[in-house]
C-alpha cells in the first residue's frame, strides 16, 4: 500500500455504517454519482464496483437543467452496438437467407439466388429497443433503488432488441463460423452450441467448426478444429459439459487473431464468462484494427449469474435446482442427527446468487452466507453464536454458504470515518481504492477483487491460469470453526459438510435453461449475420437484447444487500444480522 501514489483524493465527512448518506456530505462533485453506491457500503462488491465504474465515467453535473438529456445521449452511445459498416461503410447488405419457409437448410450453392421472404413479418427492425430498467423508484431509499441522481429521477434507458434482420452482411457460402467455449463448465453449453450450429445451417452456412478446449485450441498444436453440423450436434444437449471442452488461460489475443486469419474464420461465437468476454472484445478490437470483416459474438455463460444487466445467465436456473438435492441431503442429515448441523457450499466467487436463490427455493436453510454481506463468525453477534441458539431451540440447523463468502472481514465500528478515498489509476482499467487498511482492486479484467487486511482465510496471492484470484476454502473453514466452537463450549454437535459444487456445474440444463440457451444461441447467429460484432446476447426484462460487451463486464454483478430478493431470503431463513 505504501507504493500507491494517489492520483485523486476525495474528501468526505462521516459515512454511516449500513445507513443512508446524503449527497451533500461529499464535497467533490466528481463523486456525487457514487454516493448512492455507498449508502449501503457493506455491499462492498457491488457498490465499490459501481463506484469504480463511475469514477471511470464522466462526471454528471446535476445542476445542469439538461443533464438528463445529456445522460440519455451518453447512454445511447455507450450502448450502441458496433457494426461492420463502422469500419466498412460501403459494405452492401443482402436480403436475409434466414427464411422459415425454407425446408432444406443446407442448400445447393444458392444457384437460384438467396431464399428470402419479403412478405414475412418476423424480422427485427434495427431501431427496435428494449427498456433496460422498468422500475420507477420514487426515492433513493426504496429497496434496491438504482438512482442516477439524488432525486432518483426517471430516466429511460433503451438497449438494442435481438433477433433476425431483413438485411444481412455475410453471404452464407463465404462464412466460416467457429464456436469456442472457455472458462469453467456450465449447464447448457451444449444446448447453445447446438442451437448456433442449427441456426447457422438455416442461414445456409456449411463451414462450421468447434475450437477445442477454449482459447487454447487456437494455439495448441495437436488440437484440431472439430467440424460441426446438425447431425453432429443433434443430441449433445442431452448431456452436460461442453462437446468442445473448456480451459482457462491460453494464447494472446494477437495469436488468436493470427489463427483466425490462417483458418479463414469470419464468424466467431464465444461462450464464456467475464474473462472470456474480455477476450472476445479484445479479439473484436484486434480484428477491427486489422480491418478484418469478422463478427465476434458472445453468449454469456456463468452459473454464478455475475454478468451485469441480464435477468439471468444460462445455467443459473439449473444450478439452483441441482443445489436443492445437496441442501435436502444436508437437511435430512441434520434433522436425523442429535444436534445436527448441515453445511452446504455452493459456487459463487464474487456473487451469492446461487446460494441466495437455492436457500429461497429450498426453504430448509437457517443461515445463508454470501460474499456481498460481511458477517462475524465469532463473538456475541456471530454466526456460531446463532448456531448455538438454533441447536438449543430447534435441535438442528442447515447453512448454505457461497464459496466467496467470508473473504471479507466486516468493520467492528458502527460508524466509520472516511477522511479520504485514495484512488489510483494504476494501469488502464485498474483502480485501487485504499481506505482504513482496506484495499479494493478492480483488476485488468474488470473483475473486482476485495481484500481487507484481516480476513477469515488469510490473503492469498495465488491466481489460476486466467488470472482469477484463488480463494481460500470457506466451506471447510466454517466446518472446522463450527466443530471447534461446539467442542469449546461443551455442547454436542454433529457437523456434516457437503460440497456439491462440481456436481452442480456438470449437469445438463433443465427445461427453463434449455429454452434460454436455445434463444440465446439463435440470437447470437442473427446478430452476427446482421453485421454486429463485439456484442453479447442477453435476456433483459424477459426480452432478448444485444449489449456491447464492455458494458456487461465492467465489474461482476453481485447481490444487492438492499434488494428485495436478499430481504426475502432473510425473511425466509430468519437469520439475524451477523455484525
Ligand atoms: N482481459 C482479458 N483479455 C483477454 N483474454 C482474457 C481476459 N481475461 C480472461 N481472458 C481469457 O478468457 C478465458 C476465460 O477466462 P476465465 O478463466 O476468467 O473464465 P470466465 O470466462 O470468466 O468464466 P468463469 O465464469 O467460468 O470464470 C481464458 O482463456 C482467459 O485467458
Ligand atoms: O475450478 P474452476 O474451473 O476454476 O472453477 C471454479 C469457478 O468457476 C465458477 O463456477 C465460475 O464459472 C466459480 O464460481 C468458481 O470459483
Ligand atoms: Mg470469470
Automatic annotation (TrEMBL):
Keywords of the record: Allosteric enzyme, ATP-binding, Cytoplasm, Glycolysis, Kinase, Magnesium, Metal-binding, Nucleotide-binding, Transferase
Named cofactor requirement(s): Mg(2+)
One GO cellular component term: cytoplasm
UniProt: Mg(2+) binding residues: 274
UniProt note on regulation of activity: Allosterically activated by AMP.
UniProt key word Magnesium: yes
Gene from which the chain derives: PFK
EC numbers on record: 2.7.1.11
Organism, as annotated: Salix brachista
Enzyme class: transferase
Residues at the catalytic site: 304 (proton acceptor)
Protein family membership: Belongs to the phosphofructokinase type A (PFKA) family. PPi-dependent PFK group II subfamily. Atypical ATP-dependent clade 'X' sub-subfamily.
Source species, domain of life: Eukaryota
Annotated site residues (Important for substrate specificity) in this chain: 275
Cross-referenced Pfam families: PFK
Binding of substrate, residues: 302-304, 347-349, 403, 502-505
GO BP terms, alphabetized: fructose 6-phosphate metabolic process
Pathway named in the protein's UniProt entry: Carbohydrate degradation; glycolysis; D-glyceraldehyde 3-phosphate and glycerone phosphate from D-glucose: step 3/4
Protein name as catalogued: ATP-dependent 6-phosphofructokinase
Location within or outside the cell: Cytoplasm
UniProt GO MF annotations: 6-phosphofructokinase activity; ATP binding; metal ion binding
InterPro entries found in the cross-reference section: ATP_PFK, PFKA, Phosphofructokinase_dom, PKF_sf, PyroP-dep_PFK_TP0108
Subunit-structure text: Homotetramer.
Cited function: Catalyzes the phosphorylation of D-fructose 6-phosphate to fructose 1,6-bisphosphate by ATP, the first committing step of glycolysis.
